[in-house]
Design brief:
Blueprint lengths: L1 H11 L6 E4 L5 H7 L3 H11 L4 H9 L15 E6 L7 H11 L6 E4 L10 H12 L5 E2 L2 E2 L8
Parallel strand pairs: 1-2, 2-3
Antiparallel strand pairs: 4-5
Helix pairs in contact: 2-3
Length: 151
Amino acid sequence: LGGFVATLAGSLDGRYDAHVLLLCGGDLYGILSRGQKDAAKTMERLRASGLSEDELRRQLHSIEPLRIAQRLPADRTWLYAARFDRVVPLEHAELLADRIGLPAERFIRLPCNHYSGIYYLPGILIKMRDILIPVGSPEEGEEAEETKTCP
């Protein structure tokens, strides 16, 4: 749930230089209702807790990223989604990207699913480093070396 927490934290606290969101989206109730694997297991546990559907919707609404995601600065936010994600289906990442107002080049759709996305993590980490420490700028007194970034 890190991407959801990062979305909420970044939306509430304007002091972050950049926001890189991974495999998350908006409409938590929809994700948990329609998502598979981890999402489905989470919904099963929530329903088993005895919460009514109305109470479940109310509680999820209180932490819904779409309520405040428009506060993220679109010029300093990147969203990585998985095209074949069945945990957080792509349409939910699209909802989040739309709410933020992300330009197309900052909404990256990876050709993977929720779990095979791990393959792209090294490239994403390099991109994150490049966002925070631009290539060619000194890093703690040393020259940062030039590297390739994730597509």
